Amino acid sequence: MGKSKVLVVGGTGYVGRRIVKASLEQGHETYVLQRPDIGLDIDKLQMLLSFKKQGAHLVKASFSDHQSLVDAVKLVDVVICTMSGVHFRSHNLLLQLQLVEAIKVAGNVKRFLPSEFGMDPSLMGHALEPGRVTFDEKMIVRKAIEDANIPFTYISANCFAGYFVANLSQMGTLLPPRDKVILYGDGNVKAVFMDEDDVATYAIKTIDDPRTLNKTVYLRPPENILTQRQLIEKWEKLIGKQLEKSSINEQDFLASMKGNSTPRRESLDYASQVGVGHFYHLFYEGCLTNFEIGEGGEEASALYPEVNYTRMDEYLKVYV
């Protein structure tokens, strides 16, 4: 059998552009949705044109034109959606319901990867408001996929290194601290940290693999399962310096969401409140590592040992 043809929806986004790159590198005929509402966003247009130069096909379609989506889907075997679900960028997860309907009508897709790439929403029914909206909406999309009997793979991949590693998991910055760092609790809760290019590589590996059909694939490469303290130690070793550490306990961290940690502090904006909730689940609860992968799941690095995934000390070197 030949390699599947792939349509990427959201191809100019943070994850999407990496999915396009990985799809081309792994030899798939790759199509990228070009939406007419791009307007004057020249960065997106030039990125689309760069994909075209690399061999991808651009397909014009709109979420406001159902038939155009159906026609786009009919060109391929696999659809991967990477539309943003984070509130500080854009939050469009439920737009996928229109894509699900188009896939259902087209009837030819052998695998759909919806926009997940984070915590497993099926395990987050207890998540805090207001951040739980992300998980609730992903579960609405999952229900639509499964009700339509569309073959799927769900990718669970957090924490993205660009947002959680370079900054040593500090909120409000993307750069590593060089003097002081805040620990969440004792800093010994394990999370999983992933180079975003590796996320894309693993995702594309799954699409023609019968072992991942109708399953959740968890990205848990063993050397990247780290506590916050271990992450900080890697940075300290690279810069040859110990950082001054302070700790924020669970109660004070949650109080910061509503501005209750200090008498005069105003409550955080909506996007920041979402972020605090997600950080709580990651670094106090350990939601990426506090469960065993069951029969409905697979672990990516075990399936694809040939992938030489990026270790986090290597990732951090560019920031020294």
What does this structure look like?
With 320 residues, the chain is α/β, with parallel strands linked by helices. The chain has 12 helices and 14 strands. Strands 3-2-1-4-7 form a 5-stranded parallel sheet, with helices on both faces. Strand 5 and strand 6 form a beta hairpin. This is NmrA-like domain-containing protein. Residues 3-316 form the NmrA-like domain. Keywords: NADP, Oxidoreductase. Belongs to the NmrA-type oxidoreductase family. Isoflavone reductase subfamily.
Q: Brief description of this entry?
A:
The protein has 320 residues and is α/β, with parallel strands linked by helices. It has 12 helices and 14 strands.
Instruction: Tell me the span between the first and last alpha carbons.
Output: 46 Å
Number of strands: 14
Measured by DSSP, the beta-strand proportion falls in 15-25%
Strand order across the largest sheet: 3-2-1-4-7
What is the 3D form? globular
Q: Radius of gyration over alpha carbons? A: 20 Å
GO molecular function: pinoresinol reductase activity
Keywords: NADP, Oxidoreductase
Organism: Vigna mungo (Black gram)
Protein name: NmrA-like domain-containing protein
